[in-house]
Amino acid sequence: MTALFYIAAVVAVIATVLVVTRSNLVHALLYLVVSLFAVAVVFYTLGAPFVAALEVIVYAGAIMMLFLFAVMLLDVRAEAPLRVPRRAWLGPLVLVAVLVVELIYALTLNDSSLRGVEVGPQQVSASLFGPYVLGVELASMLLLAALIGARHVAGQPDDGGGEADHGGGPADDASDQEAGA
Amino acid sequence: MASVPYSYGLLLAAVLFGIGFAGLLVRRNLIVVLACIEIMLNAAGLAFVVAGARWGRPDGQVMFLFVLAMAAAEVAVGLAIAIRFRQTLRSLDVDDADEMRG
Amino acid sequence: MMLGLLWLIPSLPAAGFVVLVLGGRRLSRRGAAVVGAGSVGLAALVTLLVAASFIASPPPGDAYRQVLWTWFDVAGLKPQIAFYLDAMSLIFVLVITFVGFLIHLYSTEHMERDEGFTRFFVYMDLFVASMLVLVLADNLLLLYVGWEGVGLCSYLLISYWQKDVENVYAGRKAFVITRVGDTALIVGLFLLFTQLHTLEIQPLMQSAAANWAAGSGFAVAAAALLLGGAVAKSAQLPLQTWLPDAMAGPSPVSALIHAATMVTAGVYLIARTHVLYELAPDVRLTVAIVGTATLLYAGFSALAQHDIKRVLAYSTISQIGYMFLALGVSGWEAAVFHFMTHAFFKALLFLGAGVIIEALADEHDIFRMGGLRRQMPTVFWIFAVGAAALAALPFVTAGFYSKDLIIATSLGSVDGSVWLYLGALAGAFVTALYAFRLVFIVFFGEQHTPVTRRPGWRERLPLYVLGVLSVVGGLVWMPGWLGGFHPLESFLGTALPPTELGGSAFAESAGAALLTIVIVLVGIEIAYLLWLRWQAATARFAAQPVPRAIQAFWLHGWGFDWLYERVFVRPVKWFARIARGDLVEPAVGGIAWLNLRAWRALSASQNGLLRTYLTVAGVGIVLVLAIVVLR
Q1: Chain B partners of C599 at a C-beta cutoff of 8 Å?
Q2: Which of A120, C442, C511, C542 has its CA 20 to 30 A from that of A9?
Q3: pLDDT, tens digit, for every residue of A116-158?
Q4: Structural domain contains residue A56
Q5: Is residue B75 part of a domain?
Q6: Interchain proximity C609–B25, CB inside 8 Å
Q7: Domain presence at residue B7
Q8: What one-character DSSP code corresponds to residue C260?
Q9: How far apart are CA A163 and CA A156, in angstroms?
Q10: In angstroms, rounded to a whole number, what is the distance separating the alpha carbons of residues C153 and C123?
Q11: Domain harbouring A54, CATH code
């Protein structure tokens, strides 16, 4: 189990690095999926099977699929993938290194081993329906808001090909008003 | 279950967060930017789960659930914005949206 | 008692000023005219009431003092807002309000088509109020307030047509030159206060007489400093260069400020503080010399001018020279008499000139006028009356009586002298010459410019009234050999000391008067010959090199402007230019430069790129974490 943790951790890190560095968009997204799977395994090794499943189903499943659908909708193949010069990585890497060091320093002041206890779905559910029920309701409202917002921001579906051809935002708003209610 | 030092889990979270942040600063493709944000959120959730596992309580996982819900909502709206972005500016380069300056 | 209304006299124009400033925009032209001219008219009415009361039953000591309130009380200086009315100030107030009202009435028509109509009356009302404060002031500090006020209004009104920058320069020149005098005046006030500890005029005069011996340094200094102020304000040598340029203002302004009233403030000041001049005989003699020199200088300059208003401007300088001459030979009352008659005929001449200029569509050059006698007969006769009064045409004009009195006094007074007398006589000759030169060139001969506008009743009525006054105004002081009817002298005698006569029998005789009369008539006759009968010959003569040079010299005021430009203006400008790069300049400029650079830098940081902002945020997070973690 401990070995599984370390292997999954390494895979996650490598996959994440690849996400950030691939120039082909779809490749990057697929590597992200791999990274999420690896993190799910890490969750499992930490004794949190519920969130491991959630990670796979929701994150890698739903959210990444959303990404891929958006990529298909945006027809990214039509333009060249954006290349980033090597030199551009230097500054951010330095900054991030400092940040990570700081975070580690801050987070590991109290070093101790994990208790090898599994916290199963039952406990989590009991907690969700118990003390955190308000949070659950709020989360659902958030999702509703996101749903409506996303639909509104992205425009109406029944304008057909007009959406992609129009120039600026105001013109689109006008066409929304014409076609819509 | 694995008996891993607590700090290694947090180290993993920190490293993933850092990679995501670096990618956020460097990459110019809007979709990749959104993906980096997802990476960072995921790392934060990982930190929560590790903390929960350290104390053996479900609270960490509950927090992760909420983070997940929030990430989903954010991705939905973010991608909708990306679609708009593409329509208005004809590209997915984040650097093309630079009119709010001066 | 009507005397209690004294405070209303300056307050009414001041109220008119305030009303026009606050509500001028909401008033129609007619409303502004009613307020502007009406306030001065009301002041004239009140003056009549006050004068009637004062003359019918004179107050004790022949002076009335009305205290309004104490201005301030600091370190022993406690000036009050108080008015002092005696015979002299009453004469001045009567002239200011009446002639002022006539000029205001004239202005309601003359300035009718001007877009700054309300602004004009704002300044005019403020001027009248300040001038009245000046002559009614009980203490020298309040007088100085009025003095400054009229200086300000003079500047504002000279540069009234401010869109043309030359007018503004003229106003600036007037202000700067009178400033020189104002400085001398205030230094004089400082001297008087530190030595005599009061600035109230009557106590001050008594204190000076009691504490300063005749000829003492303080008296001389104080008298000289006050003279400096008077010389600048009254445009006498050597500070006279501003008055001809002040003709850039509208004709009513020239009439009111630069003929009838403000320029006589110097005369008033010297007459008011006559005790100082009695204590400093050398300075008093200087007054007379300045007056005589100025009257001759200006007379010759007027002979060469071709702008109608500049002729009248130099004429004003010359006539005030006569007043100074009178003051200088202790003819205090004679000076006030001449002030009165001069106000009448000079205002008349300026208003007439305004009518002519307006009629010929803004033509100022007399050589482009001509033949107006047939076209505008009424104006011709009125203007001729004014010119005759100026030239002191015998018996029928007011100017004759006052000028003759001064000429006689310049010889007859104990402080008189033959040289002053001869100067005054020569001046009378030149005055007649240039006055009738003006009349003959403008009204006779062939007409060069058509008449396009005629004056209405509001312009004609003041001309008629002033014309009548220019004729009968002198009958209040007839000379001895004509009967000696002199109520004005008796009246003024209650306020001013009489002129001590030095026993020159000739001066008082009919012979001397006959000499004056002959000189004036000869002058008029020669003017007729030169500029009407033998016009062409005169023109040919004037075109010769030497006469032409002399004429150019007189035309430009004997080169004073040229001199002052080189001696004063250029060095000051040079110094200002080289003093620019001093220590303070870069410090102040540096602040602006720094601001600009900081703005540019901050502005550049907002480059609109998301990634830049994120990077900066990241750096911020790192720093904050560092601070927190390393505690």
Answers
A1: none
A2: A120
A3: 678 889 999 999 999 999 999 999 999 999 999 999 988 766 5
A4: yes
A5: yes
A6: no
A7: no
A8: I
A9: 8
A10: 6
A11: 1.20.120.1200
